Amino acid sequence: MSLENSLSPLAAPSLPVIEMHTGEWDRRTFWEFADAAKAATEALAAQKMKALEGMPVEALRQFCTQYRFFTIEYISDLALLLAKLPFGGLRSLLSQILSEELGEGDASRAHPEIYDRFLASIEVPRERLDQGLAANRKILGALTAQLWRRDPAFGVGLRGMGGECLCQTYLSVMFEHLRLHPYMQENTDRIDWEFWTIHTGEEDIVHGELTRAAIDRYIQEEPGALPDLAQGYERSITAWNQFWQNIFDACLPKQRAVS
Ligand SMILES: [Fe+2]
Questions:
Q1: What pLDDT does 258 receive?
Q2: Which of 100, 112, 201, 216 is deepest in the core (most CB within 10 A)?
Q3: Binning pLDDT at 50, 70 and 90, where does residue 253 land?
Q4: What pLDDT score was predicted for residue 162?
């Protein structure tokens, strides 16, 4: 198993190539693979997100708008995964995460609503909220379709693990660069930062750790799930990186052209 992270100094870096482990999976090889994939994703995100700091404000608004589609689809995919999982610690933990995503009974506290308040505060017009990239709609639709078709273990890798652990990685790096943008600095007092404080702080790190521990117990209870779990995770990383790449391509067409 190895990860080749093809980072380059260009504005639109190529995606990391993830080579899957070819022999028998066990807990050790699985977590080695997962950790290496996460490290490669972190390095890629760090390199990509630097471009946010100098992006024209309109492109930045478009960039931020595209992320909302991930948060929306993540919720329904997580609900679908919950319906498929057996009773146990992982199912209970993911149900708690789903409830938090939906505002724990208060619709105004649902994370997509909180994110939309951030978008409104950076002056994204309401009528532009539904303008998702066709390529990304396709990616998200394909993930949902696979979740329907495949075993729950694949779904755990795809959404239970990928969404919660990788998502936080990208968001933290995104926030780090986003807040350095001159527009964000000048308007910081009137921008609604709540989504970012929820998703880049202690609470989200704890979520990631709890998810990892629950998945580890799930693997110990169902070792036969490992190949599907690893496949789902690999699929998630590829989809997630492509999702962001499409957003960069749409928001930074000129820099893409010189690469
Ligand atoms: Fe969330």
A1: 44
A2: 112
A3: low
A4: 62
Going from the N-terminus, what domains does the chain have, and what CATH number goes with each?
57-258 (1.20.910.10)
Q: For residue 254, report the distance from its CA to the centre of ligand 1, in Å.
A: 32
What does the pLDDT look like over 144-158, one tens digit per residue?
A: 999 999 999 999 999
Distance in Å, CA 70 to ligand 1 centroid? 10
DSSP codes of every residue in 24-54: ---HHHHHHHHHHHHHHHHHHHHHHHGGGGG
pLDDT, tens digit, for every residue of 75-134? 999 999 999 999 999 999 999 999 999 999 999 999 999 999 999 999 999 999 999 999
Separation of 73 CA from ligand 1 center, angstroms? 11
Spacing, Cα 164 to ligand 1 middle (Å): 9
What's the 259 CA to ligand 1 centre distance in angstroms? 33
- Distance, CA 58 to ligand 1 centroid (Å)? 25
The CA-to-CA distance between both ends of the chain, in Å, stands at 30
For residue 155, with 0-12 CB atoms within 10 Å meaning exposed, 13-18 middle and 19 or more buried, which class applies? buried
